[in-house]
């Protein structure tokens, strides 16, 4: 479904990715593991079409992303991809419900997110603003926003770094469970072995290159 082959990307003299391969099947959870600066976030940005690689090829559902225009890649991200970031990145002026429903509204859809909020234990706090909610509820809302439009792939960059171990495990259980029920794949970037343990498969990066194990 989603494949990157021979991916290379440099920022000036710094080689962020150097001949990296990654393939993701429908419904699969893949963890990209490495220390800070290893290229994990860059790889997610390249696979999702946010960045265009200097070399190599990204293919999604049989379509090459590299040669598409910025607008075309943005349209794919809006409709087929979801994103979860370390701090949640919710819009502070919108309620949790309004944040979750934002991808639907941007697509002109009138679907309700109420069922997903209930599934992720947010129904009772849906009217809260992000700054009124604890970090674990903000991150649950970010997960709901990433899944609400039934994406094919969710890209998650250190999604539980902002919460403790117990809250992180509950969030990861809810996140991976909700994604699998929708047959959505997850590409998960993390430095933490406890987070990678939720994946079906783990790939390692070091200094932008594939590695055989954590370094």
UniProtKB/TrEMBL annotation:
Database matches in SMART domains: AAA
Q: Does this UniProt record's set of keywords contain Nucleotide-binding?
A: yes
What keywords sit in the KW lines?
ATP-binding, Nucleotide-binding
Q: Which residues form the ABC transporter domain?
A: 2-215
Q: Which GO terms describe its molecular function?
A: ATP binding
Its domain of life reads Bacteria
- Sorted alphabetically, which SUPFAM superfamilies does this protein's record hold? P-loop containing nucleoside triphosphate hydrolases
Q: What is this protein called?
A: ABC transporter ATP-binding protein
């Amino acid at each position: 479904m989603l494949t990157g082959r021979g991916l290379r990307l440099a920022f000036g003299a710094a080689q962020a990715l150097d001949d990296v391969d990654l393939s993701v099947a429908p419904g699969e959870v893949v963890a990209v593991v490495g220390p800070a600066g290893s290229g994990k976030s860059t790889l997610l940005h390249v696979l999702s079409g946010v960045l265009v690689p200097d070399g190599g090829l990204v293919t999604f559902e049989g379509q090459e992303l590299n040669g598409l225009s910025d607008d075309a890649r943005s349209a794919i991200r809006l409709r087929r991809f979801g994103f979860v970031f370390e701090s949640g990145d919710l819009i502070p002026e919108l309620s949790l419900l309004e944040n979750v429903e934002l991808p639907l509204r941007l697509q002109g859809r009138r679907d309700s997110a109420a069922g997903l909020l209930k599934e992720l234990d947010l129904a009772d706090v849906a009217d809260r603003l992000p700054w009124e909610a604890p970090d674990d509820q903000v991150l649950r809302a970010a997960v709901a926003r990433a899944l609400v439009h039934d994406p094919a792939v969710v890209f998650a960059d250190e999604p539980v770094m902002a919460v403790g171990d117990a809250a992180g495990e509950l969030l990861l259980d809810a996140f991976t469970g909700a994604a699998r029920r929708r047959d959505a794949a997850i590409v998960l970037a993390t430095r933490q072995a406890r987070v990678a343990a939720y994946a079906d498969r783990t790939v390692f990066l070091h200094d932008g290159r594939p590695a055989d194990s954590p370094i």
